[in-house]
Amino acid sequence: MRYSWLALGGLLMLGAAPAPGQQQPQQQPASPLLNPNDRLDALLMQWEAKMKAVTSLSARVVRQDEDKTFRTRRIFEGVAKYKKPNLALLHLRMKDRPEIFEKLVCTDSFIYHYNLDTREIRIYETNPKGGQVGDDSFLSFLFEIKATEAKRRYDISFYKNPDQNVHETDKYYYFLKIMPRLDMDRADFQGAYLALNRTTMLPRTLVLIDPKNNQVQWDIPVIESGAEVDRSEFTKPELPAGWQFRKMPSTPDARTQKGDAPPPRVVRPKP
Fold it and tell me: How many domains does the chain have?
């Protein structure tokens, strides 16, 4: 289920800092200097400036999950919505099997995660102070990008993909290869490939390769910045018939003792 949670990070980029009590796995590298005359640095700086103006988003999304071990591929389709600073919604259904779905709602104070297997809506408490999206995860930098931080934590380069006949000088998109530098990021992914719209600097396609070499590909055929987003969509959901709410422990130790997997780092709240 870990990469289904990356759904939110992959599209809404709400990654947050580690949960209370969690320690950084390694020393942080020093922040690099940016050179406006360098092509990549200039792109990162432009990207950061564009994203500062984003206040809301609405997107139509398609996600393909490929499991190398079991040689399976599943396709989910749906919508993602975001409203600054920390409201988000993701709702996907499996193609050809709409009874199988994934849904996640982020309010000011809680994350509500629908677990279809147990018919539970699991509740995770977010930062009690609210009003602040974290910057700890890889995926957070897509919409909350800080150019210096992105360069410090990730090895970013332009690339071309011969299989798809796309090049780093494509007319419509920048194509970036992103490799993690830190252990905590390598625990989430070993590599990522991003097609970024040259005009809006919004993602069109994102491919994530997990530590087991499985692949998750996000296609975003429609994404609207500044969309009219109803705040009422980011509230505590109504409980479906036969379901129950379940409040999840807030500390790593409590989750371990009860056998509950913690929410992935990409959506954990700041302490």
Answer: 1
Residue 171: inside a domain, yes or no? no
CATH assignment at residue 42: 2.50.20
Q: Which domain holds residue 13?
A: 2-22+32-146+223-266
pLDDT at 87: 87
- Identify the pLDDT of residue 99: 96
β-strand 215-225 against 72-83: which pairing, if any? unpaired
Helices (H), 92-175: 141-144, 147-153
pLDDT recorded at residue 29: 61
Contacts for 64 with CB less than 8 Å, ≥ 6 apart: 73, 74, 75, 76, 215, 216, 217, 219
Distance CA 44, CA 50 (A): 10
Q: Which residues of the chain have pLDDT under 50?
A: 1-25, 128-139, 252-259, 264-271
DSSP β-ladder status, 173-180 and 154-158: antiparallel
Q: In 10 A of CB 230, how many CB atoms?
A: 9
The rounded distance, in Å, linking the Cα atoms of 144 and 13 is 7
Predicted local confidence at residue 267, as pLDDT: 37
Q: Would residue 109 count as lying in a domain?
A: yes
Q: What pLDDT was estimated at residue 31?
A: 67
Q: Is residue 79 part of a domain?
A: yes
Separation between Cα atoms, residue 142 and residue 257, nearest integer Å: 34
40 occurs within a structural domain: yes
Residue 15: CB atoms within 10 Å: 27
> E strand or H helix at 174, and its extent?
strand 173-180
* CA distance linking residue 72 with residue 69, whole number of Å: 8
Put simply, whether the predicted model's pTM sits higher than 0.90 gets the answer no
Q: Are 138 and 267 in contact (CB under 8 A)?
A: no
